């Protein structure tokens, strides 16, 4: 059975009329920049995530950069970043002129280790970027306590964590700012690049809005030096069509995770979810011995699998010059053992069973 890693086609077919209609509407109105599609998306996504303000922008990497800039983080500042994450979480810090300080991760949750984070704080530390990796919230209450004690800003990277929550409270409530990506494969995915920044601070929201649109709130009133990081209107229309389905898709992901829990052999270490945390399973990442051989076996059986991510960030060439300051002992161990299995809302129980049977066959 050929089982893809993700299946964007299945999702498109399930909502084809809504998507085609949304795109046709943009083409009919010719409102290609700004306007009601963008405003509607900002308002409905803010309501969905229980945030007072959402500013749409061009992509999730820009969202992080805009958040850092709006918080006045720049040259000479240090920002705590987990050692295991997509490169954007560190790249944005470097782009604003600050230095990412890599902090090791929790071995079973894969998110930033609050104890190690505390040990990395110096007088230059201005902020931290907890990443809700794979869809599981970071340990926000411990991190919030640390931030309050040391006067640090918190930028939550929720690129993989739309609707993730702790004790029924959406992520984003304990941080100063939260950022999202709508890259096509994300839990809420556009058909191109798109991103957003959320906050409950209206001044900060205004600053982000300004920075993302040439330093202006009103046309030709350039109050600060900004940039162009606007969300594309076609993408906003697609996201407006998709947003009402997000909760259903998230529940479907949870069900797929449940089937994995039922059928995976004991040799595979499945994701662990702390009490009260809502994991939204952007990725279904397990740990195994003989990872590379297992991946070869799955690939031969036409089962999609991948590694997120193969290297701790302190060990990628772009960051090896910071190596001596980077913690990555746990991240490095985890990187040699993790494999991401197929996960998408349209996945069927028999497909999950087939993946698990193939894994079982490898071990026996
Ligand atoms: C996808 C992703 C981003 C960046 O989003 P883009 O929209 O691709 O720029 C940032 N952080 C994490 C953790 C991501 O997974």
Descriptive overview:
This protein is α/β, with parallel strands linked by helices and 364 residues long. Helix content is 39%, strand content 13%. It has 13 helices and twelve strands. α5 links the parallel β2 and β3. α3 crosses α9, α4 crosses α5 and α10 packs parallel to α13. It is globular and about 70 Å long. The two termini are 20 Å apart. The protein binds pyridoxal-5'-phosphate. Pyridoxal-5'-phosphate binds next to α4 and α5.
Describe the structure in brief.
The chain is of the alpha/beta class. The chain contains 13 helices and twelve strands.
SSE arrangement:
Elements: H1 8-14, H2 16-29, H3 36-48, E1 53-57, H4 60-70, E2 78-82, H5 88-95, E3 99-103, H6 114-119, E4 125-128, H7 140-150, E5 153-157, E6 165-166, E7 169-170, E8 177-181, E9 195-199, H8 202-212, H9 233-242, H10 246-263, E10 277-278, E11 284-287, H11 291-300, H12 329-335, E12 338-341, H13 349-363
Parallel strand pairs: 2-3, 2-4, 4-5, 5-8
Antiparallel strand pairs: 1-9, 6-7, 6-10, 8-9, 11-12
The structure holds pyridoxal-5'-phosphate (PLP).
Pyridoxal-5'-phosphate (PLP) is lined by residues 59-61, 85-86, 88-89, 131, 157, 159-160, 181, 183, 193, 195.
Number of strands: 12
Biggest beta sheet attributes: 7 strands, mixed
Q: Which of globular, elongated, flat, extended, rod-shaped describes the shape? A: globular
User: What is the number of helices?
Assistant: 13
Uncertain runs with pLDDT below 50, 5 residues or more? none
Ligands, deduplicated? pyridoxal-5'-phosphate
**Topology pattern, helix = H, strand = E:** HHHEHEHEHEHEEEEEHHHEEHHEH
How big a fraction of the residues is strand?
5-15%
Based on helices, strands and strand pairing, what is the structural class? alpha/beta
User: Radius of gyration over alpha carbons?
Assistant: 20 Å
